[in-house]
Amino acid sequence: MNEATARVEAALYSAGRPLSEDALLRASGTESRIKTQSIINNIMKKTCSVFKAIEVVQLPDGSYVMQLKPEYSSTVKRYASKPILPKATLKTLSYIAWAQPIASRQLVETRGTGVYSHLKELVQLDYIRYESVGRIKIYSTTEKFQKYFGIKGDAEDLKERLFSKVRKTAGA
């Protein structure tokens, strides 16, 4: 069991992205979904009690990720060796934050068809959510997005703050 736990810890740490339960099952080397789930639960508990800034969480899609707690993200951004999100995905997230609520069709028209992979990643990370209205998905940001990026207030407050920074930059 110790070796299986070490393998799951190593997979979560090194992946740098969410991993499905099936991926963690393969990483554990066990063939038991129950044992793997028990290992994951123990790692989540141990991480919560031992570390102050790191957590292992289950995302809404059922995958697991080892990550920095949102309240510490601004503290370590300057030390990170690679960006949290690829630039194109970050641009898509920014556009959603600015224009929310926004339909998938409008996102594709503005950002191109590559937006589908961005949306999948952003939903998986729980930075955005969507509502299905007929065949159309309407996207908006989540509370996790606001915590992670240090945003207080609602979408209208965010838009006003962004717009005032744009005005200051343009006027300078």
Structural overview:
This protein has 172 residues and is of the alpha+beta class. The protein folds into two domains: 2-68, Arc Repressor Mutant, subunit A (Orthogonal Bundle), CATH 1.10.10; 87-171, Arc Repressor Mutant, subunit A (Orthogonal Bundle). It is 57% helix and 14% strand. The protein contains nine helices and five strands, in the order H-H-H-E-E-H-H-E-H-H-E-E-H-H. The chain has a three-stranded antiparallel β-sheet. Helix 1 crosses helix 2 (21-28) and helix 2 crosses helix 3. The protein is globular and about 50 Å long. The mean pLDDT is 85.
- How many alpha or pi helices? 9
CATH class of the largest domain equals Mainly Alpha
Overall geometric form: globular
Q: Could you describe the largest sheet, including whether it forms a barrel?
A: 3 strands, antiparallel
Topology-level CATH name of the largest domain? Arc Repressor Mutant, subunit A
Q: What distance separates the N and C termini? A: 61 Å
Helix percentage: 55-70%
CATH homologous superfamily identity of the largest domain? Winged helix-like DNA-binding domain superfamily/Winged helix DNA-binding domain
Total count of strands: 5
Mean pLDDT: 85
Beta-strand content estimate? 5-15%
> Spans of 5+ residues with little confidence (pLDDT < 50)?
none
Key words describing this protein structure:
Arc Repressor Mutant, subunit A; two-stranded antiparallel ribbon; single chain; 5 strands; 2 domains; three-stranded antiparallel beta sheet; alpha+beta
